[in-house]
Write a structure and sequence with these properties.
Layout (H helix, E strand, L loop, with lengths): L10 H16 L46 H6 L3 H14 L4 H13 L3 H11 L5 H17 L3 H14 L4 H97 L9 H5 L19
Helix pairs in contact: 1-6, 1-8, 3-4, 4-5, 4-6, 5-6, 6-7, 7-8
Length: 299
């Protein structure tokens, strides 16, 4: 059976997914920018032999049933049947457990199935290969995995490691700059959110201070009003007491005048049995019936 001359499911198809994403975002600001094309593994890439073709599956007369099985995992990968490709590569690993190329292919299938933790595990295994080209491709894919996991700083370091092995890797250069720009963008957004949050907290603090000052002013005004009311009540009370004292004084003076008048009305200076007031009010002070016995000119 013929064998594949290159490792299918190489990192570049995986890289193209990230590159396509980068192009979507970056082309919005430039009509002339073009993403680098995905590269195929060059000569010297490890060779992973394909298993024999599986016998054809009998056709389902109803036209339904289980999906058609693709015996060759490389063909399955190319046709998008990544679960079948994964199973085929796992079967290969049973025969060649130490082969980093097989680990690389398993990682590629896991990546396509979006099992990024497992993809990272197998790409890391492949990155230990003694073949510089395979190591570079594995590191490149580890950068893609880190990006998918949201580990942008780690993605930068892995792309840089890939470029140390192959400085001419244009895809790695593109993705490195894309992720760096993404980090800067996120940092700027985080800084902006922090500034907005600080401004909001500052505004809330100022509002609280204004409210506290307003409450304090209101309490002070209420206290002043209460003090004024208390003073007014005290003044009114003092005025009432003063008025009562004046009334009492007037009443006492009036009583004294009444007593004096009563005393004058009852005074009998000549002791003739007639009060002086009666004598002075007599029509005839020289009335013989009212002799002036006291010598005051009044009878």
């Amino acid at each position: 059976m013929p064998e594949h001359s290159t490792v299918t499911a190489a990192p570049r198809p995986l890289g193209s997914a990230l590159l396509a994403l980068a192009a979507t975002l970056l082309l919005a600001g430039s009509a002339t920018a073009q993403p680098p094309q995905s590269a195929k593994p060059g000569p010297g890439s490890p060779v992973a032999p394909a298993p024999p073709d599986a016998p054809p599956v009998a056709a389902d007369p109803a036209g339904q049933g289980a999906p058609r099985r693709i015996g060759n995992p490389y063909d399955a990968y190319d046709q998008g049947s990544f679960d079948q490709a994964l199973q085929g590569f796992v079967d290969q690993q049973v025969e060649r457990p130490e082969d980093p190329a097989v680990a690389f292919n398993i990682g590629s299938a896991q990546y396509k199935l979006k099992d990024y933790d497992q993809a990272e595990r197998y790409f890391a295994n492949a990155a230990l290969s003694g073949d510089p080209k395979l190591r570079e491709q594995a590191l490149y894919n580890l950068g893609n995995v880190a990006y998918r996991q949201g580990k942008l700083d780690q993605a930068v370091e892995r792309y840089k490691s890939a470029l140390e092995l192959d400085p001419d890797d244009q895809d790695a250069k593109f993705n490195l700059e894309f992720v760096r720009d993404e980090i800067r963008r996120r940092n700027e957004e985080a800084q902006k959110r922090q500034q907005e949050q600080n401004q909001q907290q500052q505004n809330q603090s100022q509002d609280q201070q204004n409210q506290d000052q307003q409450n304090q002013d209101q309490q002070g005004q209420q206290g002043q009003d209460q003090q004024n009311q208390d003073q007014q009540n005290q003044d009114q009370q003092n005025q009432d007491q003063q008025d009562q004292g004046q009334d009492q004084q007037n009443q006492d003076q009036q009583g004294q005048q009444q007593d004096q008048q009563q005393g004058q009305q009852g005074q009998d200076s000549d002791r003739d049995g007639l009060p002086d007031q009666a004598e002075t009010q007599a029509q005839n002070p020289t009335d013989p019936n009212n002799p002036d016995s006291d010598g005051d000119g009044l009878s």
